[in-house]
User: Fold this.
Amino acid sequence: MASDVKHTALLVMDVQNGIVSRYLQGEETLRPFQQAVSAARKAGIQVIFVRVAFSEGFPEASPRNKMFAYLAQAGNMTVSADTTQIHESVRPEPGEPVVTKYRVSAFAGSNLEVILRAKDITNLVLCGIATSGVVLSTLRAAADKDYALTVLKDACLDADPEVHRVLVEKVFPRQADVMTVDEWAKTLA
Assistant:
């Protein structure tokens, strides 16, 4: 599935300054993300970056949405803020879209699906922060939209290692191929 490079996209989700800073444990933390982006580029696979950000004044953040109401109150997640920019370790190259979303799933309130249709993408390879957030929500939405799915388990981070383990070992395999970046890269050779 992943070897169909013309119809495959790597989604690098929420690897943005304000989120990475909460998970960074040293240079090694982001190495799997860098390796995934490098392998995709080398194979000619479309790389798409996804970030969460809000307009000035946070009109998209409902006070009923616990997580986003908190972000609006903190006030540092606007589209122009440094916290919402893609982390320099995986900086987008020309031709690599940066999709802005307004909810947890990469599909919610974004133009991601329009881009995928325009590029005739049917296979998605997912990586991101957090496993229990954007990866889970995007995987569920993408499965419902009939995308073929791969999750790069070592290029997903979660604050709770047990939640990460349960998702990649028990939940995700029902809807996706789950593998390491190295295992995936070998399918591209």
Q: What stands out?
A: The chain has a mean pLDDT of 93. Residues 131-144 form the longest helix (14 residues). The first strand starts at residue 8 and ends at 13.
